[in-house]
Structure prediction request, 95 residues.
Amino acid sequence: MKKAIHFLLTGLLLSLASNLYAADDKHHDGKDLHDKKCVSCHGDKVYTREDRMVKTMSALEHQVNNCMKGAAKAEWSETETTSVVDFLNDRYYKF
Prediction:
């Protein structure tokens, strides 16, 4: 019986660790793209300040697109842009 419980707990822990890794990896590309283009102009304070201008998901998408065309000069695909938006939303905004 002890072996069965031990086996079950080990399986549960491995499953949990795998899920945590997958969740972290979910936005790996978005984080990398963000870190390469966005952090050079501003750190994360623009996302966490009390008077931040982005208050909706559509505003976040709009702002990322504005930065891409402006200062960042990022030539991201639609998939890459969505990855950055999703990363920012999950990390900072939580819309």
Observations:
- Residues 2-25 form the longest helix (24 residues).
- The helical segments are 2-25, 28-37, 45-48, 57-69, 78-93.
